[in-house]
From TrEMBL:
The lineage of its organism: Bacteria, Pseudomonadati, Pseudomonadota, Alphaproteobacteria, Hyphomicrobiales. Residues 5-100 form the NIPSNAP domain. This is NIPSNAP family protein. It comes from the Bacteria. Pfam families: NIPSNAP. SUPFAM superfamilies: Dimeric alpha+beta barrel.
Amino acid sequence: MITCFIRYEIDPFKAEAFAEYARAWGQAIPRCGADLIGYYAPHEGSATTAYGVYNIRSLADYEAYRERLRNDPAGRANYEFAKREQFIRREDRIFLRLASAPHGELIKP
């Protein structure tokens, strides 16, 4: 299993457009085969940094998933929405593997 971390630099004056974009991916990404952890928008600190995070089995599965996403009507519409509204200034992707497992039990105070 690998995890894709997408770091976005967004226009701080178009944060609601990014939130709409994130909600759309919340439906399309799982439907197309990736295990979506979530999209995260600025809250405190930087007003321009946002993230998208999902798990996928392998880079080969990632390529097939990306093809399904490109062919998904909602996926295509979301790509076009981002292009039209231009709220994303920069987008970087990195694939990481979990190195800390197994985790201990969460202790609640």
